[in-house]
Specification:
Dihydrodipicolinate Reductase, domain 2, 2 domains, five-stranded parallel β-sheet, globular, binds NADP nicotinamide-adenine-dinucleotide phosphate
């Protein structure tokens, strides 16, 4: 048996808490999968006072400075101090695993150039799409990506399909812990645009600035539109889509009218889905939990096991190759394709 793989955890919230539980409760299975035990050396949180934790609680800077650390797992979220901590760890030769879509979409290529960076959990949580694009399909040619990448708005649109107003659907999502007090990242489509930028960089191997992706959120979707869509045999879904034909990247996120019999129409509640068209592998469809502590922690753990097994950080290596390129010009896909815009 190899020596334990020593890990520091930055963040013990929804995802960090679920990961820490798995590391304790599933230790035997994880050891078998990783070929060695994974040892949690310490945890950093924002508010450590009076807190119980499955490993020593330490200030992040102190934790990062510990010798003999193999990897850090960043599940704090936000741009700073996550960017600083991840840069420090990579420069110190550690592996880094993060679930932070905002940071990877904005700065993934520069960070990945510093060292092995893994971010499977940053897009669609439990759906294994990040390494699939970078590694399994790395030599294929991806023509298009289409997905439902935000579970909160998908749940809200479903509730509106059953007669709820936008305000009631939002209040219900907030009550169920699906939407934040400030729901803008979801309802104004910043969150799916960041995830689409990550997928599109991996699929089309071009640098993409997420702010260049046109976004239309669901704030202005009226119950009457949802009802009219239903009468027309459609459902309204917030669709994130991109094509990379002929070197031109077209991408946007907007509510679209999806025919009720299409697979995307049947993606319910907080589920996510990603459809890919690959020249050689053909049409692929992935569906699964797009959020939730256990689903996200499952993707983080997959990266951790790959790191402990010395598997290549394929998605990170791919992003690193884009760091010197200027961002691609991104044009909107427009109102007709892949499905007609709902508004
Ligand atoms: N939740 C999901 O379903 C999900 C799914 C996929 C990806 N993600 C991503 O995973 C990341 C974490 O999400 P989450 O839902 O677990 O967030 P969360 O519940 O808000 O937890 C954040 C954790 O980070 C800690 N933290 C915040 N600032 C810190 C700082 N400066 N130094 C040290 N610790 C700090 C917090 O400490 P305190 O506990 O003391 O406040 C908390 O433990 C985000 O990037 C998110 O986008 C989440």
């Amino acid at each position: 048996m190899r020596a334990p793989y020593r890990v520091a955890l930055l963040g013990l919230g929804n995802v960090g808490g679920a990961l820490a539980r798995r590391l304790v409760e599933d230790a035997d299975r994880i050891t078998t999968a990783a070929g060695r035990p994974i040892a949690l050396e310490g945890i950093a949180v924002a508010h450590p006072e009076g807190r119980r934790a499955p490993a020593p609680l330490l200030p992040a800077a102190k934790l990062l400075a510990r010798p003999h650390l193999d990897a850090i797992v960043e599940v704090m979220g936000g741009l700073e101090p996550a960017h600083t901590y991840i840069s420090m760890a990579l420069r110190a030769g550690r592996q880094v695993i993060t679930a932070n879509k905002q940071l990877i979409a904005a700065d993934g290529p520069e960070l990945a150039r510093l060292g092995p960076l893994r971010f499977e959990a940053s897009v669609a949580s439990a759906i294994p799409i990040v390494e699939t694009l970078a590694e399994t399909l790395g030599a294929d040619r991806i023509g298009s990506i289409m997905g439902i990448l935000n579970g909160t708005t998908n749940s809200m649109l479903a509730a509106m399909g059953e007669g709820a107003s936008y305000a009631d659907a939002l209040a219900d999502a907030q009550r169920r812990g699906l939407a934040e007090a400030d729901p803008s990242a979801d309802v104004d489509a910043h969150d799916p645009a960041a995830k689409l930028a990550i997928l599109a960089m991996l699929a089309f191997k071009r640098r993409i600035d997420p702010s260049q992706i046109e976004r239309v959120g669901i704030r202005n979707v009226e119950p009457a539109q949802v009802e009219a869509a239903r009468r027309g045999g459609c459902v309204i879904k917030l669709i994130a889509a991109a094509t990379g034909d002929d070197g031109t990247i077209a991408a946007d996120v907007r509510p679209r009218l999806v025919p009720a019999e299409a697979p995307m129409a049947r993606v319910h509640g907080a589920m996510n889905a990603v459809a890919l068209d690959a020249e050689y592998a053909g049409s692929l469809l992935f569906e699964g939990p797009g959020a939730g502590p256990d689903a996200a922690a499952s993707a983080v753990l997959a990266d951790l096991i790959r790191a402990a097994n010395d598997a290549p950080a394929s998605a990170g290596s791919l992003l690193a190759t884009l760091a010197d390129g200027s961002p691609a010009i991104v044009v909107p896909l427009g109102p007709e394709k892949p499905y007609r815009a709902a508004s």
